Amino acid sequence: MTIEVRVPQLPESVADATLVTWHKRPGDTVARDENLVDLETDKVVLEVPAPAAGVLKDIKLSDGTTVTSGQLLALIEEAGAGTGVHPAPVMPAAAAPAALAPAAAATAAGAGAGAVAPAGGSSAAKLSPAAKRVAEENRVDPKALQGSGRDGRVSKSDVVNYLQAKESTPAASPAGSPAAPAAKAPAPSPDAGSRGVRGSRTEQRVPMTRLRARIAERMVQAQATQALLTSFNEVDLLGVNALRSRYKESFEKQYGVKLGYMSFFAKACVEALKKFPSVNASVEGSDIVYHEYFDLGVAVSTDRGLVVPVLRDVDQLNFAEIEKSIANFAARARTGAITIEELTGGTFTITNGGVFGSLLSTPIVNSPQSAILGMHKVQDRPVVIEGQVVVRPMMYVALTYDHRIIDGREAVQFLVTVKQCLEDPARMVLQV
Question: Is 287 a catalytic residue?
Fold first, then answer.
């Protein structure tokens, strides 16, 4: 019996997807729920599992094709229908669902169920989607690649660097054949230094991933449609550091997660958003929509680009719940296991360039939101407190906002409120 493999129903917010990588070829044996192909949307990479065990009979669409919901991808000759193929045993308790699943989440479920790993072995499993695409286009063996990412994960830049190194390495002479005599190099002309070419000048042309293209589109759209302005302030984190040092061991022991800066900043932002509702609002046509809830987006950097998972109802979460949620989002976003629903919505965003060493920046608003807070590197600096010069752990903070609905006074006072909450963390407990 021939089984059709079709593009699953995409969410309403996603019009189409790009077929990134086939993990099987016609004639290959497939197990039920084994990942056949990766589909890349504007936000996440999705896997399409095999609906039945058998042999992949025909592939209808090639890599790089734009697909929509319900489109025919491939045909599978089901096991037992004259193929001589028997389905691989699968433990029902851990089997991955046949419905659409994010990348890595389905892979992890398949591994627990004894499903067949995607083609390419363990080395291929460590490639990011962008790295897979570049490697396959250039016919690079994944086993030859060395990953520079976390847990040896291979990024696109690792593949590009490998290709550049390979091109710059001279081919060896065949065994037993005499080496060709080296040609005498011509004497350099007096202006050779100005005209000569030194080192490799290779170029790699790689199409933008859908995520990168979407990020570019949204950033340009935000700057073209909003009146963006950035205000700055600085925060003395002595009080926050004292609390973290005092309670970090007991906090981690009790909740199983470290007490970081992000929970303090999230809580401080909620207090400031309560006082200045326009910072938590958005523009829809000629209307201003004031959100009476606090869904904070937290920017996470991944190999594929920046994603912003959303923490819902942060005003109702405690510090431990915020830290756990952020750690979970970050881990799953970097493996591609984040869901589209978790990336949708949000009324305000926090981004932390300080983890990369940024001292000061002007973040771009995540449209249709109207403001974003930028955190930066904590750095010991001399400051004047009560007439005395002292050294304190200082951080510059930046608020980029839509000046159409947020006045400069509100933006400045918002930052002052965040500063006050962080410099005196008791304010967040007492809500004063």
Answer: no
